[in-house]
Amino acid sequence: QVQLQESGPGLVKPSETLSLTCEVSGYSISSAFHWGWIRQPPGRGLEWIGSVHHSGSTYYSPSLKTRVTLSPDTSKNHFSLKLTSVTAADTAVYYCARVSQVGATRVFDYWGQGTLVTVSS
Amino acid sequence: QSVLTQPPSASGTPGQRVTISCSGSSSNIGSNAVNWYQKLPGTAPKLLIYSNNQRPSGVPDRFSGSRSGTSASLAISGLQSEDEADYHCATWDDSLNGHVVFGGGTKLTVL
Question: Which of chain B's residues have a Cβ under 8 Å away from the Cβ of A22?
């Protein structure tokens, strides 16, 4: 059974860097698939942040690409998110998920439980 | 705001049929398959419908999806109390280099 678990600080100061890690169990990230991050600000909808492949290729949301870096660590079977220069608008529940190709579409088929990150001084 | 437009709320009584809409444009829904996610309170989103109208294993056939032009819909028949959740549509947008776009989510209340 594929399982994902986010970890990282729950509180980040404005202008600092948000760093989260997604530990994957039950599947090797170096085998296949892209691995992504999605967030949900309080009272708002889901927002895709980006996806990363074990080879290191990345896809970033146009609205966040200047501040986001995703990276895989195949030795630890996890992948990470770094978001720089955060503001209160980055306060959200952050989810990691696996991206699977199903027919003509791609879906997020396995998700972590999510972790709340609050940006505040 | 979100690229895809959903009504913020919907409601129905047990046994009723409810429909949730998702509106987009030619570069997203008009060109790509739509997926739906169900988010129960305090839990991670769960894939509910993929490729417009396909159900993953384990999803009851009370849930169905459709797509027409630049809009998509999720229908829930025989509404049950456990269906009370947030529902999010998603697809890929060709004008954004194939990046993922979500709707703002619809909170379904079972009265």
Answer: none
Q: Per-residue pLDDT tens for A17-29?
A: 999 999 999 999 9
Neighbours of B93 (CB within 10 A): 20
- Give which of B34, B105, B17 is closest to B69, Cα–Cα: B34
Give Dmax over CA atoms of chain A in angstroms.
Answer: 46
Closest chain B C-alpha to A67 CA, distance in angstroms: 17
pLDDT digits (tens, 9 = 90+) for A29-75: 988 889 999 999 998 999 999 999 888 889 999 899 999 999 999 89
Which among A62, A102, A103 is the nearest to B99, CB-wise? Answer: A62
Q: What is the dihedral of CA B44, B50, B52, B53, to 10 degrees?
A: -100
Q: Report yes or no: B38 and B13 within 8 Å, Cβ to Cβ.
A: no
Q: Mapped to the 3 state alphabet, what secondary structure does B28-75 carry?
A: CCCCCCCEEEEECCCCCCEEEEECCCECCCCCCCCEEEEEECCEEEEE
